[in-house]
């Protein structure tokens, strides 16, 4: 493909990504993967260039752009190589017309920027939300140790005890160490959220919103396969991804429990008042993960944020019923908004007099309200809010 054809293809893909964001359709990654699958004429260099152009254009626009071309024109204001390619050549984009729409820049739509600022995320912290995310691994202590593990490419330790950082784009899934379960891909922030659970061998631990089990696997390793580890979720598809991952990781203690939405306690009845710890990795806006999913900024609205907060409150109340006297619950969201972090744990503690907030001592992050917040700017992790509460004995 010519460089101009790559730009035009990126514009067309951006149109699809914008339409999908407006209709709650497929995420950008899936739209790109599908196009690559169906466009055999595009070689690996074309694919890499198109992916980079598309993501750079998404990052360049704050609010949702009116069109892919408007997004590309925005990017052209900072990337001088694009303008000359708007030349009307075969398969290339049409030349620039007078008064063409150029998308607005910025970090996010204005209402969301306001919410972030009110939550203490502005200036450099705001810019960092759109940087490129590093690629972190967790060494699975059921199979290996960070100090002695040999990997095919250089890897640097991060402040999480089992984490290693490798060059972004490294195809770790092809490494024998990945296939053998010695390593998992997991952001350092996510690993630190698991540390907050302080799961011990022999305990009964519930990972209430386990999804595909990213955190469950870290808890299994912390428990050294001893005790009971319940992985529950309402999403059958996500939960079904856990079993093969657990097998690869040698995590043998995990019990998966599919929950019925609104009737979660029916499947978890045996655990009422029994768990030493319940992790609530709650569904949220994902504002802390924009480095990986920058178009997620275009999918949020204020009503949706309020709905997330309601679900988070419900899950906190539900989890509290599962904890034994003296046990703990750990509340986590990958959001930087106080509405989904400090405000939620404050409400929980205000409504449950027999629970106390507990300070966490974590290798990264800074106190925010009744919890610890990790941010892409300060900690170079995904953004997380993590809080711990303990039930009186
Ligand atoms: C942030 S994701 C979890 C990610 C996962 N813990 C990991 O580390 O990979 C939130 C999960 O909550 C689940 N969820 C939503 N509503 C739920 C409910 N009422 N009970 C349990 N899980 C729920 C979603 O299906 C989703 O998998």
From TrEMBL:
<keyword id="KW-0949">S-adenosyl-L-methionine</keyword>
<feature type="active site" description="Nucleophile">
    <location>
        <position position="334"/>
    </location>
</feature>
<protein>
    <submittedName>
        <fullName>tRNA and rRNA cytosine-C5-methylase</fullName>
    </submittedName>
</protein>
<feature type="binding site">
    <location>
        <position position="260"/>
    </location>
    <ligand>
        <name>S-adenosyl-L-methionine</name>
    </ligand>
</feature>
<comment type="similarity">
    <text>Belongs to the class I-like SAM-binding methyltransferase superfamily. RsmB/NOP family.</text>
</comment>
<keyword id="KW-0489">Methyltransferase</keyword>
<feature type="binding site">
    <location>
        <position position="233"/>
    </location>
    <ligand>
        <name>S-adenosyl-L-methionine</name>
    </ligand>
</feature>
<dbReference type="Pfam" id="PF01189">
    <property type="entry name" value="Methyltr_RsmB-F"/>
</dbReference>
<dbReference type="InterPro" id="IPR001678">
    <property type="entry name" value="MeTrfase_RsmB-F_NOP2_dom"/>
</dbReference>
<feature type="binding site">
    <location>
        <position position="281"/>
    </location>
    <ligand>
        <name>S-adenosyl-L-methionine</name>
    </ligand>
</feature>
<dbReference type="GO" id="GO:0008173">
    <property type="term" value="F:RNA methyltransferase activity"/>
</dbReference>
<dbReference type="InterPro" id="IPR023267">
    <property type="entry name" value="RCMT"/>
</dbReference>
<keyword id="KW-0694">RNA-binding</keyword>
<dbReference type="InterPro" id="IPR029063">
    <property type="entry name" value="SAM-dependent_MTases_sf"/>
</dbReference>
<dbReference type="GO" id="GO:0003723">
    <property type="term" value="F:RNA binding"/>
</dbReference>
<dbReference type="GO" id="GO:0001510">
    <property type="term" value="P:RNA methylation"/>
</dbReference>
<dbReference type="InterPro" id="IPR049560">
    <property type="entry name" value="MeTrfase_RsmB-F_NOP2_cat"/>
</dbReference>
<feature type="domain" description="SAM-dependent MTase RsmB/NOP-type">
    <location>
        <begin position="102"/>
        <end position="392"/>
    </location>
</feature>
<keyword id="KW-0808">Transferase</keyword>
């Amino acid at each position: 493909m010519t460089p101009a054809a790559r730009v035009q293809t990126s514009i067309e893909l951006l149109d699809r990504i914008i339409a999908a964001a407006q209709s709650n359709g497929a995420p950008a990654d899936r739209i790109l993967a599908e196009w690559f699958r169906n466009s055999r004429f595009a070689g690996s260099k074309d694919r890499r260039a198109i992916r980079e152009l598309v993501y750079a254009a998404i990052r360049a626009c704050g609010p949702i752009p009116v069109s892919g071309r408007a997004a590309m024109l925005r990017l052209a204001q900072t990337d001088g190589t694009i303008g000359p390619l708007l030349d009307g050549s075969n398969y290339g984009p049409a030349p620039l017309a007078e008064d063409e729409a150029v998308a607005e820049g910025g970090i996010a739509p204005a209402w969301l920027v306001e919410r972030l600022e009110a939550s203490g995320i502005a200036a450099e912290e705001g810019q960092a939300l759109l940087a490129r995310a590093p690629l972190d691994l967790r060494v699975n202590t059921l199979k290996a140790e960070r100090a002695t593990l040999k990997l095919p490419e250089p890897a640097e330790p991060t402040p999480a005890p089992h984490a290693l950082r490798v060059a972004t784009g490294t195809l770790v899934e092809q490494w024998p160490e990945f296939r053998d379960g010695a390593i998992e891909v997991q952001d350092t922030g996510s690993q630190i959220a698991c540390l907050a659970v302080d799961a011990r061998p022999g305990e009964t631990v519930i990972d209430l919103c386990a999804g595909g089990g990213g955190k469950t696997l870290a808890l299994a390793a912390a428990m050294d396969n001893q005790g009971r580890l319940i992985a529950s979720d309402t999403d059958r598809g996500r939960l079904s991804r856990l079993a093969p991952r657990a097998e690869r990781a040698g995590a043998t203690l995990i019990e998966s429990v599919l929950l019925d939405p609104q009737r979660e306690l029916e499947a978890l009845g045996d655990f009422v008042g029994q768990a030493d710890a319940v992790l609530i990795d709650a569904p949220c806006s994902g504002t802390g993960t924009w480095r990986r999913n920058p178009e997620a900024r275009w999918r949020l609205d204020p009503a949706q944020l309020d709905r997330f907060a309601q679900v988070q409150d419900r899950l906190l109340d539900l989890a509290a019923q599962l904890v034994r006297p003296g046990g703990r619950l750990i509340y986590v969201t990958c959001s930087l908004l106080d509405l989904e972090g400090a405000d939620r744990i404050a409400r929980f503690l205000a409504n449950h007099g027999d629970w106390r907030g507990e300070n966490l001592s974590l290798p990264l992050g800074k106190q925010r309200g009744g919890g610890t917040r990790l941010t892409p700017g300060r900690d170079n992790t995904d953004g997380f809010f993590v809080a711990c509460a303990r039930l009186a004995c």
